[in-house]
Amino acid sequence: MAAAATFLGIVMLSACSVSASANLTVSPGKVATEAEDALEKVVGSRPEVDCGDEQVDLLDGTVVACELTDPTTGSRYDTAVTLSEVDGTSFHIDVDVAEEPKA
Span of the secretion signal (predicted)? Predict the structure, then answer.
């Protein structure tokens, strides 16, 4: 009986920890594509953006560290993509590209 009570306690704790971290996420590829689309509209050519491999939490204010590659020069720039107006799986992005290329 004590073993059953202990098991139940562990299951209940597990359930609490799972539900606490059930944020919706989006792939880093989706964030990169959205950034590429936004930048292409502004500058007229499509850069390559890499936002890594880890899923991105869909939360207002999430900042994703990415890297932009200029298709003309091959220069790479640190790029921050900030999520806002998150509503389920819909979101808005702001893209901030460093002024100077990486060394």
Answer: 1-20
pTM recorded for the entire structure: 0.77
Residue type, 75: S
Amino acid at 59: L
| Helix or strand run (H / E) with residue 53 | none
- Give the per-residue SS3 of 49-81: EECCCCCEECCCCCEEEEEEECCCCCCEEEEEE
For residue range 47-73, what is the model confidence (pLDDT) as tens digits?
Answer: 999 999 999 999 999 999 999 999 999
